[in-house]
Q: What sequence folds into this?
């Protein structure tokens, strides 16, 4: 069964950086796009990025474009989210997930997520 373990979150000041990691297991990762999502308190979960199966293309939400970069290592079954120039509004729990074609359909259950808090 698909499983995801996110890590790398923490408390960071505005303008700082964090690198999140996602360890996937229980499936053939190269068959799926990988998305990063986040959910702030009282808000709906939103997708912030999606990277293609081979890692050659990625899309981003407008709110993070130019600041966040996603990557993946299929051999290690991992995905990463490099977050730079963090803002207080980036505060949320971050999750990763396996996505189908065009990053529309999500597969598997959510992991525990990793908390990112941006505050001075």
A:
């Amino acid at each position: 069964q698909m499983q995801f373990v996110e890590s790398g979150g923490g408390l960071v000041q505005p303008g700082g950086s964090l690198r999140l990691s996602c360890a996937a297991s229980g499936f053939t990762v190269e068959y799926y796009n990988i998305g990063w999502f986040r959910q702030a308190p009282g808000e709906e979960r939103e997708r912030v990025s999606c990277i293609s199966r081979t890692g050659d293309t990625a899309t981003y939400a407008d709110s993070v474009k130019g600041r966040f970069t996603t990557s993946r290592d299929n051999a290690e079954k991992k995905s990463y989210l490099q977050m730079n120039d963090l803002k207080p509004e980036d505060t949320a729990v971050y999750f990763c997930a396996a996505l189908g074609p065009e990053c529309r359909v999500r597969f598997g259950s959510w992991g525990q997520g990793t908390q990112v808090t941006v505050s001075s």
Observations:
- The chain has a mean pLDDT of 97.
- DSSP finds no helices and eleven strands in the chain.
